[in-house]
């Protein structure tokens, strides 16, 4: 288990309301939302960054994508959302426990990375 804030949330050391949970991950609302819907999907097993994942993590990584889709459906944003993984401080990662951002509820069509 990671000793980051996310590891402490997963372990229950820091109370948090889970909007989704299964045997491999949890989902919580971001405390600093960048859109009306901003949810974090956090694996229960702490991998610091995406580039630190290994071949043995393949199933977990795939599971996180499926879980993100389930959460998007649960929240009613499955028709339009962004899924973001920041890798490293230079990319905006501030907690070094791999996590996925589901961002939705506003128009992204004219923003970055359209296409």
Give a concise summary:
This protein has helices at residues 5-11, 58-75, and strands at residues 20-21, 25-29, 37-43, 81-84, 100-104.
Structure, described:
This protein is α+β, with helices and mostly antiparallel strands and 115 residues long. It has a single domain (5-104), classed as HIT family, subunit A, CATH 3.30.428.10. The protein is built from two helices and five strands. The protein has helices at residues 5-11, 58-75, and strands spanning 20-21, 25-29, 37-43, 81-84, 100-104. The longest helix has 18 residues, at 58-75. The mean pLDDT is 93.
Give descriptors for this structure.
115 residues, alpha+beta, HIT family, subunit A, five-stranded antiparallel β-sheet, 5 strands, 20% strand
């Amino acid at each position: 288990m990671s000793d980051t804030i996310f590891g402490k949330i997963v372990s229950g050391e820091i109370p948090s309301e889970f909007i989704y949970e299964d045997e491999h991950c949890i989902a919580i609302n971001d405390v600093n939302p960048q859109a009306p819907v901003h949810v974090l999907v956090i694996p229960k097993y702490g991998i610091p960054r995406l580039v630190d994942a290994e071949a043995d993590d393949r199933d977990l990584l795939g599971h996180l994508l499926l879980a993100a889709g389930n959460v998007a459906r649960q929240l009613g944003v499955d028709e339009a959302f962004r899924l973001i993984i920041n890798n490293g401080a230079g990319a905006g990662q501030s907690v070094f426990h791999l996590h996925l951002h589901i961002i939705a509820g506003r128009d992204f069509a004219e923003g970055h990375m359209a296409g």
